[in-house]
Amino acid sequence: MDKLILYRELIQKLLTARAKLRSKSDPIESQTIFDTIKDHYQLVHVGWKDSSTRIYGCVLHIDIKDGKIWVQHDGTEDA
Amino acid sequence: MDKLILYRELIQKLLTARAKLRSKSDPIESQTIFDTIKDHYQLVHVGWKDSSTRIYGCVLHIDIKDGKIWVQHDGTEDA
Question: Which end of chain A has less neighbouring CB within 10 Å, N or C?
Fold first, then answer.
């Protein structure tokens, strides 16, 4: 399989798996944002905690650039 | 024109226009991330300032949800 196709598939699988860890009843949503044209891939947390506190943050942002995987942002270490 | 198609086009135009404001020689990159399947649209700043300080931040995050435009995050007021 072409390396680029494999990278795209793996990154999307990884982020989708992480997003699914969140329970569906959780008011915070885990969004996966996949721009397969420009090869930007993100996992973002969006929602309201206790209906009053806004939660917004990019958890992971991975790009494919010149055939290489770039971790642009890794917020998983903050948790 | 269908409202949804118009919304998609307008949001992408807006974010692309904002991203283009940045000079090409700027070490900070303005990325547009468009997930047209799940209707998530972002403008993100990524790069290094003076080769030592990491710059990373979502400037705008707009979704289309149930036919409506949701501004999930607006970082433009911080500037």
Answer: C
Residue B51 lies in a domain: yes
Contact pairs from chain A to chain B, CB under 8 Å? 49
What pTM did the predictor assign? 0.92
Query: What share of chain B has pLDDT > 90, as a percent?
Result: 85
Residue B60: give the domain boundaries: 3-74
Put the strands of the sheet holding B40-49 in their side by side order: B29-35, B40-49, B53-65, B68-74
HEC readout, A34-78: EECCCCEEEEEEEEEECCCEEEEEEEEEEEEECCEEEEEEECHHH
**Is A39 among the domain residues?**
yes
Nearest CB to B33; choose among A35, A46, A56: A35
Establish if B14 belongs to a structural domain: yes
Please name the member of A35, A56, A72 whose beta carbon is closest to the beta carbon of B72.
A56
Instruction: Tell me the per-residue pLDDT of A25-76, one tens digit each, with 9 for 90 and over.
Output: 899 999 999 999 999 999 999 999 998 999 999 999 999 999 999 999 999 8
What is the pLDDT at residue B65?
Answer: 96
Tell me which chain B residues have a C-beta less than 8 angstroms from the C-beta of A38: 31-34
What CATH number did the domain enclosing A46 receive? 3.30.310.110
Count the domains in chain B: 1
